[in-house]
Amino acid sequence: MRITVASEPGRADRENEDFAGAVPGAALVVDGATAPPGVASGCVHSVAWYARTLGGLLLGTVTDLRLSLAEALELAIAQVGRIHSGGCDLGSPHSPSATLAIARARGGLLEYLVLCDSTVLLDHRDGTAEAVTDDRLDLLRPRIATPPEGADPLAYERLGPVERFAAHRNRPGGFWVAAADPLAARQALTGAVPLDELRSVSLLTDGATRLADLFATLSWPDLRTILTTDGPAGLIRRTRKTEAATPPASGKPSDDATALHWPLTG
């Protein structure tokens, strides 16, 4: 099992809120969801703490091959919740959260799980590259003016953009992330591919997929090629150059970026 990883904060003066790790037969990346400025999370722990703690515990639960990836994630979320439930308001819609992607080899299959906007990039032996990501957050954006089911429409209308997104977090019809509720794991996208159909798998936080899904300067096969030839560090270097030359029209000028590349042959 040969895995290469690169991870870099979006800004040199801020802590990296991503996490990546691997154990024999499995790998994962976790992307902590940065809290908007001035928004109280109700938690004494940082987003980076949450991402590292969840990722570390998840590396343990995915080794239990009796568990599905969703069950392993559910167990890890519950474990993190027990660690910081005493002095933290886990009921806050702004409590620390994270998106993630997992890959695991089991029984001749490459199993994968994606929750929110991290990506699993499957490199098929036939030369195709398949990106698996959870786009429910993006699908919510054009209809954010509509309150979630059961919400008071008048109260919702008075909310700002940040609070509106928070009201849809881990709600039916909204988007799902790892946070306080372990049952969010059951909403993750999961799948499996025969190992002998794949050359490699890559796990990417959204800061490392910008060339394909934000700037649209590269295709997913192009991204796969960079990961194969230049490695995760090469992909991040190229992303930073593009961000510096052409800052995105909206969102962060530069984001925490983590890429993990796992060759499955040779």
Automatic annotation (TrEMBL):
What is the protein's name according to its record? Protein phosphatase 2C domain-containing protein
Q: What is the lineage of its organism?
A: Bacteria, Bacillati, Actinomycetota, Actinomycetes, Streptosporangiales
Segments carrying the region annotation (Disordered) are 237-266
